[in-house]
Structures are given as structure tokens and as C-alpha cells.
Amino acid sequence: MYSFNTTESCSFDSHLHKCYEIIHIIHGQMMYTVEGNEYSLSDGDIIMTTHGELHSFSFPKKCEYQREFIHVYPGFLERTPGTAAVLESREPGKYNHIPADKAEKYGLDKIFEDIHANCVKPTEETDIIVLANIMLLAARVHRMLNEDAPKYPEVTSSAKANFIYRYIDIHYMEDISVDSIATAMTMSPTSAQRLFKKETGMSIKVYLMLRRVTAAKNLIMEGQNATDIFTECGFRDYSTFYRAFIKYVGMTPSEFKHMYDGRK
User: Fold this and answer.
1) Which spans in the chain are helix H?
2) What number is the average pLDDT over the span 137-162?
């Protein structure tokens, strides 16, 4: 799926997609966080995420946000498994950001231009042309990462904070808590909380809840009922899940499902 949008700036909470997402920032300044690493984006930059990377974004000031993005669903790449392998080649949260000068150097901006030109006036050949461009884009990104990997500052530089991220991502569906996570790190709960808060700006409990609620959102978007999936997302009972969903999504599970079905 290709889309070109212009909107006013707005924050978007942590979430996952069921696809690979590649965004080309045409205009606007924003902060984009992927798996605890924060990137400062501006005109011409590209940001990439896979369907397994938790990400969010916000804007330091109100601005017009103009971007084009590609959503590539895994099933679309079954005939070109090599492309999927390239898109999955990064470690989670690493090298998501391609600065504008690198995008221009490797012709990534030109690939977006070609995709846009073909999608504005689609023809019978558009799907084939877009697929070819996505394969070319993946190949150019792979070449760039091998030759000229972009450097960026990481907000989460602590190995212990990253361990907490990884531990929650693997075990969020289990009956874990701040105490059990701290035990796995051989730290006291207070020390673990203080470390994670300092490095990420959020508490361990908040990130754990976000991870669980995000998993539930994805399952609901896949057509499953909220009453059937809350336990596999790590919630002990439906009432706790229901309250957490409203708190972090801003609506009930049924309202979210209705909204998603309407957009689809």
C-alpha cells in the first residue's frame, strides 16, 4: 500500500503494524521512537520498521506534517523471499533511520518519486512496477547498511534498559511483573524502575501494559474477539484488560474494532 498525506502534527502512542513500514518525510520535524531508540527526523529523512518493532512518534512543535509511506504486507513478498529477508536483516530498533543525505546518495528518494508517479495514475502495470521498486528499495537499503550505515544517537544506551525491553517483548504474555523482571536482572525492583525510567522516560509497568495492549489491538485487527484473547496478551482477567485498553487506547475494545472495521 502506498499513501501520500499532509496533516497537522499529532502524537501517536506505541503500536505495531502487521506489515513493513517505510516512511519518507517530505516536510516536518518529529521525534520517532523504535524499541526505545529515539530518532530526530526532518525533511527528506526515511524511517523503517518491521511488523515486530514497537514504535511511536511525536512532534516537538506544531507543524504541517507531509509524508509518503509504503506498507508492505509479508504475504505480498512470498514470491520474492529475498526482499523479505533484507527487510528483516536489521536488529530490532537498530538502523531504522536513514538521514536525507543518505537517502539521496543511494537514490531512495527517486524510488519514492517513481512509486508516487505510478500510483497517482494507476494502470494495469502499476502493481508490477511498485513491486519492482520495493525490491529495488530493499536492495539499495541493504547496500547502504553494508557500505555506509548511518550513525545516530540512542536515547536508550544502557544495556540493562535494553535487557528489560527484550525481556518484556519475549515474556509479556506470561504472568510477569516489575518484581519478576527485576529478579531476572538480579536487581531490586526500585533500582530497575529507576534505571528504566531514566533511560526511557516511562515506567516498566507502563511499557509492559503498552506491549500487552498493542498485542491485543493487533489480534482484534486480525478479527479475533477481545473476550477470547486477553489471557494470551498477559492479562489475568477481562476487567483488568478492559480498563488498561481504555486507558492506553482511549476507547473500549468493541469501539476500537468498530473503528478499525470502518476504516478497512
Assistant:
1) 81-87, 100-105, 108-120, 126-147, 159-171, 178-184, 189-200, 204-221, 226-229, 238-249, 253-263
2) 73
